[in-house]
Design brief:
Layout lengths: L3 E6 L8 H9 L9 E5 L10 E3 L2 E3 L2 E5 L7 H5 L5 H5 L5 E5 L6 H11 L3 E3 L11 E5 L2
Parallel strand pairs: 1-8
Antiparallel strand pairs: 1-6, 2-5, 3-4, 7-8
Bound molecules: iron/sulfur cluster (2 copies).
Length: about 140
């Protein structure tokens, strides 16, 4: 069975919002509608706050996919990558069939796991797209 999946390597994400903007523009979404947003992983409320305690501060981000994300079904049917994956400048996003051991997404996830990366999905209460796997070494 095909399990189309987006793998997010959080260690490569620089919080640029290119993925979210590429989705919004290419899908012609209304101003207040986003299929993907980028969350700052910092201290408490507000965006762009680092985590940690000075001087050991760190900025990190996480793209979050809403349930409305279609995984770019029409593009996939044409053999193209999703807009968000295609637009990521740091190659933080990988797309493919996780059930195919030879796919980009399966081989990358396997290689990163062997290097000690931890993998997880967002919990159900996040109301996020299920076919997204996060990986990070931190
Ligand atoms: S997979 Fe397609 S629809 Fe889903 S967030 Fe990415 S660009 Fe938008
Ligand atoms: S996943 Fe890629 S495009 Fe999206 S915010 Fe991170 S670095 Fe930018």
């Amino acid at each position: 069975m095909v399990k189309q999946t987006i793998l997010v390597n959080l260690d490569r994400c620089v919080g640029c919002w290119s993925c979210a903007m590429a989705c919004k523009i290419n899908n012609d979404l209304p101003e207040d509608t986003w299929f993907a947003t980028v969350r700052t992983l910092g201290n408490g409320d507000g965006i762009d706050r680092p985590s940690g305690v000075w001087p050991n501060l760190r900025m990190s981000w996480m793209p979050v996919y809403s349930k409305s994300c279609t995984l770019c079904a029409a593009r996939i049917a044409d053999g193209e990558l999703p807009h968000c994956v295609n637009s990521c400048p740091t190659l933080a996003l990988t797309f493919g069939d996780l059930d195919d051991p030879d796919s980009d997404v399966a081989t990358k996830l396997n290689a990163l796991t062997c290097k000690g990366y931890k993998n997880w999905r967002l919990p159900a209460w996040e109301n996020s797209k299920a076919n997204v796997v996060y990986t990070s070494r931190r």
